[in-house]
Amino acid sequence: MNPSIPTSSPSDRRRTDVIRVREGAIAPAAESDFVAEETPVALEFNGISHATMLATPADLEDFAMGFALSEGIIDGVSDVRGIDVLPQCDGIVVQLEISTACEVRLKTRRRAMAGRTGCGLCGVETLPEVLRPVKPVTGGAAVRIDTVLAAMREMRARQALHDITGATHAAGWAGPDGAVQIVREDVGRHNALDKLIGALARQAIAARDGIVLVSSRASFEMVQKTAAAGVPVLAAVSAPTALAIRLARDANVSLVGFVRGSDATLYAHPERLIT
Question: Helices marked H in 139-188 — which ranges?
Fold first, then answer.
């Protein structure tokens, strides 16, 4: 299977009986439908339990790698010696073996994040850990705005699990030509972006030359993760927050919101976007 094609396996959805309401009338009989799966996923680094999040149980190696990179636990793929995905009766444990230097750093940044499908920052022990600085993105060639618009439309067409369940977010990466090469989906928007970042790293793709696309709003953490991955453009379907805009300006990330159809709003570093 081509790893660039979004994986959609039976583990990421469940069939259930539903009763439809159409034009105010309740159907007389139930019918079968699919819903997105959501399960606790615990991340362990060198045997140390670090975070537990509710996530869609697909592409978990990408998820673990992307989380470790975007959270600054590791500096690169070479810091990970191995990844094991271990299903448990009440969830999934993903065990990563990381370098000793990264383990030492991790112990200074212990987190206890449970159920991070919402805010993405729950459980952080200190405010500096929330607002930790990110290195500004360097470079980044000019990108045509119609390329960004076309890439968002292509990503939407490739949200296979969302089409089946209607319940997942997506994060995608497009090259400078606007061609979408990777899409990852999850019930949590942060999880989807971590999966994307992990997939880019594991496939050794030069992400710095492309565009990150998200099917959600652009929160502070979405900008933070994009900057940590070194990608110069973040395009979101919905609005950014004020804090996200400030970070994008400081981190040299071109932030584009309300990317819908042929329309968009530029919030940070518009000089990188051209007509």
Answer: 145-157, 160-165
Extents of the domains making up the chain: 39-130, 143-274
Cβ neighbours for 201, distance < 8 A, ≥ 6 positions apart: 65, 66, 69, 76, 77, 207
CATH (residue range 39-130): 3.10.20.10
Residue 249 CB contacts under 8 Å (≥ 6 apart), including other chains: 268, 269
Q: What is the pLDDT of residue 112?
A: 40
Exposed/middle/buried for 154, CB within 10 Å: 0-12, 13-18, 19+?
A: middle
* Contact yes or no for 39/57 (Cβ under 8 A): yes
pLDDT grade for 105, boundaries at 50, 70 and 90:
confident
119 catalytic? Reply is yes
For residue 139, what pLDDT band results from cuts at 50, 70 and 90? confident
pLDDT > 60? residue 126: no
User: Active site residue: 89, 102, 119, 122, which one?
Assistant: 119
Query: CA angle, corner 10, sides to 4 and 193, nearest 5?
Result: 40
Q: Which fold has domain 143-274?
A: Cytidine Deaminase; domain 2 (3.40.140)
